[in-house]
């Protein structure tokens, strides 16, 4: 009987602790290039389910439900023929190698524009740019949970 109580108390304590801890889990940290009223510079971006923060070139970004306004995504993706693959495969394989020119490579950038209220109540926007499409996709997968928690919209 005492063992049952001990196990149930232990489970309850673990469950409560995990729910408190999970309220502010960090989903991930990403390397990007950021701009905030200046040129783009390397930065680190950390996303949790309650806020986003980054070391911008001229300031420190911390956006949560108290100052978040909007998030926009801008894509500049181009598909270009991979000339190197086409040329090498043609030299190695002859006419069959011409298929290498059909290989498409995605390149470009993805910008996340985060709008927020500054200290004096003015609207400001920080830009987080990714040239690595896998890194941009990883951040994109983490944003829905963050936006659910910090957005004021009732959808």
How does this model look, in words?
The chain has 155 residues and is of the alpha+beta class. The chain has one domain: PH-domain like (Roll). It has helices at residues 2-22, 83-93, 133-150, and strands at residues 26-35, 41-48, 51-55, 60-64, 68-81, 104-117, 123-130. A 7-stranded antiparallel β-sheet has the order 4-3-2-1-7-6-5, covered by helices on one side. The chain is globular.
Instruction: Domain count, please report it.
Output: 1
Shape: globular
How many strand elements?
7
The CATH topology assignment is PH-domain like
Radius of gyration: 23 Å
How is the secondary structure organized here?
Elements: H1 2-22, E1 26-35, E2 41-48, E3 51-55, E4 60-64, E5 68-81, H2 83-93, E6 104-117, E7 123-130, H3 133-150
Antiparallel strand pairs: 1-2, 1-7, 2-3, 3-4, 5-6, 6-7
Main attributes?
155 residues; alpha+beta; PH-domain like; 7-stranded antiparallel β-sheet; 3 helices; 7 strands; 41% strand
What's this model, at a glance?
The chain has 155 residues and is α+β, with helices and mostly antiparallel strands.
């Amino acid at each position: 009987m005492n063992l049952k109580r001990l196990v149930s108390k232990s489970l309850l304590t673990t469950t409560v602790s995990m729910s408190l801890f999970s309220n502010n889990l960090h989903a991930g940290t990403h390397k990007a290039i950021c701009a905030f009223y200046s040129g783009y510079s390397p930065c680190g971006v950390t996303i949790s389910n309650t806020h986003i923060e980054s070391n911008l070139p001229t300031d420190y970004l911390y956006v949560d439900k108290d100052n978040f306004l909007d998030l926009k995504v801008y894509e500049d993706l181009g598909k270009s023929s991979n000339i190197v693959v086409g040329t090498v495969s043609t030299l190695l394989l002859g006419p069959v190698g011409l298929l290498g020119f059909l290989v498409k490579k995605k390149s470009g950038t993805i910008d996340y524009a985060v709008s927020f209220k500054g200290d004096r109540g003015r609207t400001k926007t920080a830009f987080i740019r990714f040239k690595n499409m896998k890194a941009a996709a990883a951040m994109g997968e983490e944003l829905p949970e963050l936006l659910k928690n910090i957005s004021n919209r009732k959808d």
